[in-house]
Amino acid sequence: xxxxxxxxxxxxxxxxxxxxxxxxxxxxxxxxxxxxxxxxxxxxxxxxxxxxxxxxxxxxxxxxxxxxxxxxxxx
Length: 75
Prior knowledge:
This protein is an all-alpha fold. The protein has one domain (2-69). It has three helices and no strands. The longest helix has 13 residues, at 57-69. It is elongated and about 50 Å long. The termini are far apart.
């Protein structure tokens, strides 16, 4: 469950059983292709970087450039 906890932007533990509507599971993180541009912001990768996985930072920057340029007619 650590990968789900690290990829969650939430600042709490990752329960497997949810007992309260105010404290949801950390299963909201989406995992898939790291260059996916379907979503504007990759919150999972951003949270992983925030939680110490620094080597992903250049990958996120590259992905964000893809998002910024995906609809430009000259490309």
